[in-house]
Amino acid sequence: MMRSILVLLACACLISCSQKTEVKTDSKVAYAMVIHGGAGTIKKENMTDEKEKAYLDKLNQALSVGEKILQNGGTAMDAVVETIKLMEDSPLFNAGKGAVYTADATNELDASIMNGADTNGGAVAGVKTIKNPITAARAVYEKSVHVLLTGEGAEAFAKNNGCETVSNSYFGTENRLKSLRKSQAKDDQGNYINANPDYKYGTVGCVALDKNGNIVAGTSTGGMTNKKYNRVGDSPILGAGTYADNATCGVSSTGHGEFFIRYAVAYDIAARMEYKKISLKEAAREVIQEKLVEKGGSGGIVALDNQGNISMEFNTAGMYRGFVKPNERVVEIYESKN
């Protein structure tokens, strides 16, 4: 009798323990999308009401573009590309129109996209004449045996595959030029940039889940103010700036790219979900708030899993961000008080 009781207690313990490690998610949604417009030292006291409204309006516009596609049964690929294109066309963000300047007072753009269905993707880096670099990244994914193309070769490929081109002067804005001049006047060794985190950050990104359960992630950036030697950050690097796998999640990163590259931030979040059997929320928190902080890196990510659960994790003062699901929409800028 006592032996039977002990066996029953042991079984109960095993059941209880397994329940504690179970990854609980919400019921799968019909669609979901999450976006970011860059992380950094974004504080309300430094923001005018007019500028704040402009960012919130543009984030809402971006969400509306992608949501309309997803609501009508469109693909996550189309939703991500069209959403990022709208953000690339806005001078508010460091991507496309409004990209920051290099040390040579030019604009060099990077972008990537990844499809969770086949864990394949495409990317371009250091392009100067592609109006919407995310379209070039998609072209590489769909029409090339390669993953990453750079410079003039990437531009030629994109142009040959129908991507719109513009002169490099199209991307420049007066505000970005002022930032470059300030950086160059203060310190030519990069210390001014290190003391002004916003010069390292920027980037736009989007992750979408469509009705077929497919996840696509994309990221686009103008890079770092006053960058030299054709520096490339994490945005066009699959596994660092962008990652998608239907088995786990999709991620788009924003922050100090060198750290995101070194620690494969986007992939690490998905890997922790797969190997540790933890939720997207837990995995993102571990990587962004613990590992990245411990290593001295700063920035954030937006991500969603295959059930449509959302994460918008960052370790900076703010991040332009938002998400949309059926009957639910959130747009935020500053650090959450929750």
Task: Give a verbal description of the structure.
The radius of gyration is 21 Å and the shape is globular. Strands 4-3-2-6-5-1-11-12 form an eight-stranded mixed beta sheet. The protein has a four-stranded antiparallel beta sheet with strand order 7-8-9-10. The model is unreliable at 1-25 (pLDDT under 50). With 338 residues, the protein is α+β, with helices and mostly antiparallel strands. It has one domain: Glutamine Phosphoribosylpyrophosphate, subunit 1, domain 1. The chain has ten helices and twelve strands. The protein has helices spanning 2-20, 49-71, 76-88, 133-143, 151-160, 174-186, 191-195, 257-262, 265-276, 280-295, and strands at 32-40, 109-115, 120-127, 148-150, 204-209, 215-221, 242-244, 249-255, 299-305, 310-314, 318-325, 328-334. 38% of the residues lie in helices and 23% in strands. It starts with a helix and ends with a strand.
What descriptors fit this protein?
single chain, 338 residues, alpha+beta, Glutamine Phosphoribosylpyrophosphate, subunit 1, domain 1, 8-stranded mixed sheet, 4-stranded antiparallel sheet, 10 helices, 12 strands, 38% helix, 23% strand
